[in-house]
Design brief:
The chain is an alpha+beta fold. The chain is built from 10 helices and 7 strands.
Length: 281
């Protein structure tokens, strides 16, 4: 046990875990700057912690000898997790796609939009020059970390978005310049964006769907509509977004868009998104 540690953030993260998700002792430890051992000791020795049964080992298994800390037996832990929507693989581990890692736990606690500095292309010559410089930086970073086929996928995606009435925002980072697909809702001062593109993650570029942002933007404040978006994305082979991540920013690698069918499904989903986003005005 770590003496004097404030466990409040860990308790908040546990309480915020959505049904159908799980996390690990290591993820919680990374969140609060501790290690898995003290976290496990704290969980097993602290009665009344909400959702402590949703904390599993690194490979998604229930810790051996798990006991309810308050002495009140709530039954078989796996059965309880399955009743809450957690799925288990044939080898006995919880489904990896339903796991919330330390970064996702932190995002769950923040409940605010991720910090993004985006610049809209304006008529100002200086703004145009800045935007163009960022675009070139983004393209260079993308080409450095990805095969040409994936670079072409991103180019096609950005062209498609602009063709259906959206615009591309670019981050101001010098190490990595991310791109954001944005859409203005006519008659309002509101801009919504469905996804961000990151040029490199160590395994190549990635697409991030920002459900966390959409949860505060009409009409996607309606959980059912965000869930329909999730289900449409899950039609893309290689994409599995669990219901429990509707308040987060799940990612998938650009590799899943290598096939024509996957790209067609994404473009169809983005057109659906645009139609619903504009229908509120």
């Amino acid at each position: 046990m770590e003496r004097g540690r404030d466990w409040g953030q860990l308790h908040q993260a546990l309480a915020a875990l959505p049904d159908g998700t799980w996390t690990t002792y290591g993820d919680l430890a990374a969140l609060i700057g501790s290690s898995a051992g003290p976290v496990g000791t704290h969980l097993l020795g602290t009665p009344g912690l909400l959702n402590a049964h949703r904390v599993l080992t690194y490979d998604g298994r229930i810790v051996e000898g798990f006991e309810w800390a308050d002495g009140h037996d709530r039954g078989d832990v796996r059965a309880l997790l399955e009743g809450e929507g957690v799925e288990f693989t044939a080898t006995g581990g919880a489904l990896p796609s339903q796991r919330l890692d330390a970064e996702e736990l932190a995002a769950l606690l923040r409940q605010e939009e991720p910090e993004q500095e985006i610049t809209r292309l304006s008529l100002s010559p200086a703004a145009r020059a800045s935007w163009q410089e960022r675009l070139e930086r983004f393209q260079d970073q993308l080409a450095a970390d990805n095969p040409e086929a994936h670079v072409a996928v991103v180019r096609e995606l950005l062209d498609f978005w602009e063709a259906v009435g959206g615009w591309v925002g670019l981050g101001t980072g010098h190490t990595y310049t991310s791109a954001f697909l944005n859409l203005d809702q006519p008659g309002t001062q509101t801009t919504v964006w469905p996804l961000s593109i990151f040029p490199g993650t160590g395994r190549g570029g990635a697409v991030e769907f920002v459900f966390q942002h959409l949860a505060s933007r009409e009409p996607f404040t309606e959980t059912g509509l965000r869930d329909e978006l999730r289900q449409r994305l899950n039609r893309i082979e290689g994409v599995t977004i669990p219901h429990g991540k509707l308040a987060l920013r799940p990612r998938f690698l650009l590799t899943v868009l290598a096939g024509e069918e996957g790209r067609a499904t994404l473009f169809e989903t983005l057109a659906w998104f645009r139609d619903h986003a504009l229908r509120t005005t």
